[in-house]
């Protein structure tokens, strides 16, 4: 039986944390080189940023929140759907959650975003399909809430935060990552939806 750090969740958590800390504190130029910039992608530059942006974060709080969510939701989801499906979901969401922004911001020379938020959102919402009544304890709430309610609050926050375009966090990716997570489960395990509908 593999340990938690040898799971896809563990590998992603360690790799993202290490890469993000290097970009934040040792090689700050790396952050700019990895940032997702639709204007440049449309001009044939930085194609890899669609993936690399998911391994760097705007600041330590951004990294901590994403990695906390990955650690909390990733292991049970990975056990539920299996490592290959979990890894596929993560990659699909990492890329797919950027695509709407690729079109929306294609003429914006100033737009740049970083973070694994789209992939994390997919993990969170796939988890919610399987465990809608799971009780979650959040740092800012003194009482536990059910996973489905957390999902609604998360989307509301993402919508509100997405109106602030001055930061390097792609809040639109939260929404599209959630959609990808929900659709992924519907395609690979429709019975999971049948149990909650």
TrEMBL record:
Topology term for the membrane: Multi-pass membrane protein
What residue intervals traverse the membrane? 6-27, 47-73, 85-103, 110-131, 137-161, 173-193
Q: Identify the keywords attached in UniProt to this record, alphabetized.
A: Hydrolase, Membrane, Protease, Transmembrane, Transmembrane helix
Q: SUPFAM superfamilies in the record, alphabetically?
A: Rhomboid-like (SSF144091)
Question: In the Enzyme Commission scheme, what number(s) does this protein have?
Answer: 3.4.21.-
Q: Give compartment(s).
A: Membrane
Its top-level enzyme class, in one word, is: hydrolase
Q: Does the keyword Protease apply?
A: yes
- Listed GO biological process terms: proteolysis
Q: Which GO terms describe its molecular function?
A: peptidase activity
Main localization of the protein? membrane
Residues forming the Peptidase S54 rhomboid domain are 46-187
Decide whether keyword Membrane is in the record: yes
Q: Which family does it belong to?
A: Belongs to the peptidase S54 family.
What is this protein's name?
Rhomboid family intramembrane serine protease
């Amino acid at each position: 039986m593999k340990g938690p750090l040898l799971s896809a969740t563990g590998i992603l958590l360690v790799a993202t944390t290490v890469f993000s800390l290097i970009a934040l504190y040792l090689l700050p130029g790396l952050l700019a080189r990895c940032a997702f910039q639709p204007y440049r992608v449309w001009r044939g530059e930085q194609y890899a940023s669609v993936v690399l942006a998911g391994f760097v974060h705007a600041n330590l709080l951004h990294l901590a929140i994403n990695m906390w969510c990955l650690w909390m939701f990733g292991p049970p989801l990975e056990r539920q759907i299996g490592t290959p499906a979990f890894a596929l979901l993560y990659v699909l969401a990492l890329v797919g959650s950027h695509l709407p922004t690729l079109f929306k911001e294609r003429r914006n020379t100033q737009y740049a975003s970083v973070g694994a938020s789209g992939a994390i959102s997919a993990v969170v919402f796939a988890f919610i399909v399987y465990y809608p009544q799971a009780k979650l304890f959040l740092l800012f709430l003194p009482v536990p809430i059910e996973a489905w309610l957390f999902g609604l609050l998360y989307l509301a926050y993402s919508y509100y935060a997405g109106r602030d375009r001055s930061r390097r966090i792609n809040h639109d990716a939260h929404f599209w990552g959630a959609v990808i997570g929900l659709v992924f489960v519907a395609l690979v395990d429709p019975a999971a939806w049948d149990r909650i509908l």
